[in-house]
């Protein structure tokens, strides 16, 4: 039978075991091989390499969001509101005629503010300012300049911002994510060569750290002009970052 010693269990040959002696030796041999294997694996996994990777993809945008609107002022509030409403209705009408869907038109801001002048140190009421801003989603970027000019010709007197984006960014983000992982593998190979070690290029852990989109944004305030407005969309940078753990020996 097996007897407990100070370190391990050992076989007591005085006990008449129903198993044969060579079976016991084979058991002890297999047990020793298993312990050696586990010891090697534990030793090998005790050395880890943690690296950060970054991947960036540059993409031409396919969607533009334009914020424009109408500002009217008058001493009488109702007059300012009616004039503003009439101009906004006309702007919406021409935008729809140019192919902008109702779902791509949204009121961003509507406000009424009293206006004052200061004369001789005194505040003098001047009238009311009515502001109605619209957010327009444009999916045909070739028409941005034409759409802005048409809106201005129809009564819009403020163009506040133009922002470019991508309709389906996840496709490009996954590409950036793959590049980020490859970036960590390249770093691991460089370290392997420098330190003369053997790095397992299959990561034992990958953590997605963050992602971000760098949108090109153009901001402008403009009045009606005679020439066609030219808008440059530029490129959007989509970035992924990962933290990757490798083991080496």
From TrEMBL:
Q: Which domain of life is it from?
A: Bacteria
Gene Ontology terms: biological process: DNA damage response
> Which named protein is this?
DUF541 domain-containing protein
Question: Which InterPro entries does the protein's record reference?
Answer: 26kDa_periplasmic_antigen, SIMPL/DUF541
Alphabetized Pfam families for the sequence = SIMPL (PF04402)
């Amino acid at each position: 039978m097996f007897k407990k010693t100070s370190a391990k269990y050992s076989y007591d040959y005085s006990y008449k075991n129903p198993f044969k002696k060579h079976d016991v030796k084979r058991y002890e041999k297999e047990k020793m091989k298993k312990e050696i294997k586990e010891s090697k694996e534990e030793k090998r996994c005790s050395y880890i390499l943690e690296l950060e990777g970054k991947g960036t993809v540059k993409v031409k945008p396919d969607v533009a969001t334009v914020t424009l609107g109408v500002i009217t002022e008058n001493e009488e509030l109702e007059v300012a509101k009616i004039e503003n409403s009439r101009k906004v209705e006309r702007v919406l009408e021409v935008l729809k005629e140019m192919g902008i869907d109702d779902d791509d038109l949204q009121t961003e801001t509507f406000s009424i503010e009293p206006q004052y002048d200061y004369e001789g140190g005194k505040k003098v009421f001047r009238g009311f300012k009515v502001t109605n801003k619209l957010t327009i989603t444009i999916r045909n970027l070739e028409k941005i300049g034409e759409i802005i000019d048409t809106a201005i010709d129809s009564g819009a007197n403020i163009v506040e911002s133009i922002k470019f984006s991508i309709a389906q960014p996840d496709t490009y983000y996954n590409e950036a994510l793959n590049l980020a992982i490859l970036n960590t593998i390249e770093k691991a190979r460089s370290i392997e060569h420098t330190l003369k070690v053997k790095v397992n290029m299959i990561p034992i852990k990958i953590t997605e750290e963050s992602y971000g989109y760098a949108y090109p944004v153009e901001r402008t305030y403009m009045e009606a002009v005679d020439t066609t407005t030219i808008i440059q969309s530029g490129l959007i940078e989509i970035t992924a970052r990962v933290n990757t753990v490798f083991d080496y020996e």
